[in-house]
Amino acid sequence: MLLSVFLISTLFIVALYGLTVAYYMLLKPVESSKKPGRELPFVSVLVPARNEETKIARCIESLLAQDYPNFELVVIDDRSTDSTGDIIQAIALRDNRVKFVRGKDAPAGWIGKCNALAHAVGYASGEFFIFTDADTYHHPNSLRDSVSHAIDNKIDLMSFVPMQELGSFSERLVMPVLLSSFLIGDPFHTVNDPTAARAYAYGQYILCRRSSYLAVGGHQSVRDEIVEDHAIARVFKEKGFKIEVADGKTLYSVRMYTDLESMWMGWTKNLYSFIESKVSNLVMMIILTNSVVVLPWLFLAYVVSLWLKGDIDQSLYGLTALVVVQISVLALWQRLTACHHAGLKWYHFLLTPFGCMTMSMLYLHSAYLVHTGGQVNWKGRRYVVNMHKTIENEDGQISEQKSRAGKLVSRDVTD
């Protein structure tokens, strides 16, 4: 009986590793552009920034260093309470390619980031828009290669899988397991299939045609969506526009969080929304990930204890062989996904079971907030999580805005 459990677990782990292999084999690369500068259109790069004083300068400087002949940066200070606005303004004063925009209050029913981006678009004049986050760093080829790829493939909206920068212990603990678990959600890249319903985008770097963006209603069409990158990709695809996800590790990198507190608050605000705010999906996610990542280590501890006790029989050899296969496959899995995780060492593999358990707590906490109406503070804003299909106004009344279960409603902390 025990041998059968080990065998089934092994087959399950191998199967899921196979899906990850499929993901990377089918992930579309971005080729180096051969287009002459005269064939490249004028591009507007839009960067929303709220309380990003430690990151915004690096992002802007990397964009200003682009090997691209004709572009502008529209950087919006989304009502920061730190020195973000001063940093942006100082750079804008010395480089006329940078337009410094001050954010405005979000209207009722609007998520803060969508409001900032919709406001920034009013200052952009490019044929293509690129929406990128303040915590990104762009290699000099980023704009040239991404825009050329979109033109050559006649794409209306595309996004790019980033290289994740992992600097702190907490990042290396949680992020590899969490980010790698997302890959199983679409291993065959049906997002790139125009006949498939699946649609999403990587919000750190979204490129779209201006005409297509305006045709779908821009960020106003997803104004109440906390996972606005997935939502706008869905709108594009539903309207018949071509969307695509490609490998962006040669284009840019991102450091989403720098410590446990910011990572916990950042993921808590929307992690449950990634699994459609359904208890059934939550249970399946926790069972699935822990069965694959944690269970093999428990099996290993059990087998080692039998060897140490000298309780050896014929079945122990079979159990040991299966455990070796499981741990080996997990090691291969981490090595494969590490191509998008900068800062990992081989010994960080030993953190995976603890990272998976921490990830499970993140999911549970995020779900708890949704089902209890709890709050989380993020970049100076208070987010209220609810299960209504409507948006709450600041006076607590339910408005008639469209929404989806598990959305977040933002208000300023000072309100």
Keywords for this entry:
14 helices; 415 residues; four-stranded mixed sheet; 14 strands; disordered C terminus
Description:
The chain is of the alpha/beta class and 415 residues long. The protein contains 14 helices and 14 strands. The chain has helices at 2-26, 56-64, 84-94, 112-121, 142-152, 169-183, 210-215, 228-238, 260-268, 271-274, 279-293, 295-309, 314-337, 352-372; strands spanning 43-49, 71-77, 98-102, 128-132, 136-138, 157-161, 163-165, 205-209, 243-247, 252-254, 341-342, 375-378, 381-385, 408-412. The strands form 3 sheets. It has a 7-stranded mixed beta sheet with strand order 3-2-1-4-8-6-9, sandwiched between helices. Strands 5-10-7-11 form a 4-stranded mixed beta sheet. A 3-stranded antiparallel beta sheet has the order 12-13-14. Helix 2 links the parallel strand 1 (43-49) and strand 2 (71-77). Helix 1 (2-26) runs parallel beside helix 13. The protein is elongated and about 75 Å long. It starts with a helix and ends with a strand. Mean pLDDT is 89; it is low at 387-415.
Topology (SSEs and partners):
Layout: H1 2-26, E1 43-49, H2 56-64, E2 71-77, H3 84-94, E3 98-102, H4 112-121, E4 128-132, E5 136-138, H5 142-152, E6 157-161, E7 163-165, H6 169-183, E8 205-209, H7 210-215, H8 228-238, E9 243-247, E10 252-254, H9 260-268, H10 271-274, H11 279-293, H12 295-309, H13 314-337, E11 341-342, H14 352-372, E12 375-378, E13 381-385, E14 408-412
